[in-house]
Request: fold
Amino acid sequence: MKISKAAIPVGALVAAASLALTGCAGGTSASAEDASQGGLPQEIKSSGKLRVGLSPDFPPMEFKDSDNKLIGADIELGQKLGEILGVQIEVVESPFEQLMNSVQTGRVDLVISGVSDTLERQKTVDFIDYFQSQARIYTTAARAGEFTKQSDVCGKQLAVSSSAEQYQQVKDLNKSVCVDNGLPEIKILATDSGSSARLQIEQGRADLAAQGGENLAYFMKQEPGKYAPVLEPLPAEPFGVVVAKGSTQLAEAIKDGFSEMKSSGDYQKILDKWKLGYGAMDPEINSVK
Reply:
């Protein structure tokens, strides 16, 4: 979702911080050296770095541990991409809602932050899709037994972040399952973030909520027995690395980097480490048609 993910403000844009450094004393591997001489744009090759925008508020994709260190699947994928391309990765933290503008205006070279590839977003940016995300509807574990078929959601209060892809997916579900069958409409409660949607459930203001399955699985692990996914997953949407529209050379280089990562087995190892192996896919540019 990023979602596909909900935007949770993390403060103003901060100075770039080094995430991973390759090409230090001792040199790079042959494959990294070859890749760095390949498809990357000349200005990036000359600078020796890629500026990566992200919003570290979406576990397990990108977040901060108790020592304020950046961790997560996207962080490790970015590190490995830097190694393959033979460049330094510099992170620029930003609120999620500012990420698209950051890449469009050139403040960053790309964004890796659990951002869903959508046709609407493709109008202004390009995606190198690398992970097949899937959103879920969920409720408290105590109420999970009330929702066994899709129509059980009709007439219920459902909280969802208005900035997440799940918001439109819930609207589509409401039409196809409820409205088109003459059933009571879903009462959609728009929130400003996924955490706010969870709070609505906890406080009894909503019967259900919707958010990215990866994010939900993380919180279910943190708080066992509190939440439970129900009904069928919402339509899968890929997460993509975001680059400025028309950045063909950079997009192809990133795609090739992910292909090499996948061939080496490192891609699958990283996903499996974060319990995300189910979302593995071949990298593709603007796969949403």
The longest helix spans residues 248-264. The first strand starts at residue 17 and ends at 20. The two ends are 17 Å apart (CA to CA).
